[in-house]
Here is the input.
Amino acid sequence: MYQVLVAQSSHLFRVDSCIYQGMEIHFSYDAEDCLNKLNNHRFDALILQYELRNKGNISARFILNEKSEDSIPVFLISRSMNEEVMGLLFCCRIHHYFMEPISYREVFDKLSEIKGNQENHLLEKRVKELLYTLGIPSSVQGYSYLLKAIVNCYYQEDYLKGITKRLYPMLADEHKTTAGAVEKSIRHAIEMAFSHCDQTFLYSFFKGTIRSDKAKATNSQFISMCVGHMKTEGL
Here is the structure.
């Protein structure tokens, strides 16, 4: 689960952690505890209040300089825009800045958007690797259609139930072409997979859903199996 650390000087309800929109959110209420948690736990994002109560001369700048080298999104929250805050924005890789008063729901919703973009980027990368393994070159038109088809079906399985009526028209609108052209291009890309990929691997990948002595996978079968593979492997 996506791990978030919120470091703030005060909070109405003092809790150690909570779950929100698929994110496990941990809280820290002083600078020293914040730094200890950053050093001992792998977080995917940090929400840091500039006025976080200091202990042992630990400031927001010190935390940002000492945190893990991992490039995680950092959200800085401050009550005012002073010279020190300006310096942090320019020097410390702050992904987003909020000025109080602001609700944490707004901050978490923005973070959820970033999380979604990161996951989508990772999914696209893994689908590209799969298509390469299956022998489909990125130079053919059907490659980009297949990539988008698999990603969209991964997030919305209803597309798998309406390949012709929903998926092809959606891809056609996005690429300024026709649904028929999308279907034909995807078919051509799949035929290339069955021509270039190792046959033993290919038919093993489809786990008996098609027979090597009968036919190639249909567009629907191919997309469905790729989506199933992605879900089984996980992000």
User: Anything to note?
Assistant: The mean pLDDT is 83.
